[in-house]
Model the fold of this input.
Amino acid sequence: MKLSSDFGAAQRAVAGFTAIDPRRTADHVTLKATNISSTIDGTAIANKLVSCLTELTTGVKRQAGNVTALATELEERDNLDAGMWGGTS
Done:
C-alpha cells in the first residue's frame, strides 16, 4: 500500500471499501422446522457469522473513511509547508 497525502490517491485506494453496504449482509438463516441438533447448531453458527461479518464490514468502511479524512488533512499540511518554503506540493 502506498502512503500518500494526496486525497485523490487515498480515495482511489479505499474506493472498494467505501462502496460496501453492511446492511446487505443482514439476512439471517431460518429453518421452518427441524429437530436435528446439528442443523439447529449450524443455523445458530451461520447467524452469528452473518452478525460478525456485518460488524467487520462496518468497521472496514469506517476505517476507509478515516483514510480519506487523514489524507485530506495531510494534503492541507503539505500545501502549507510548501507555501512556507516557496514551493508547491
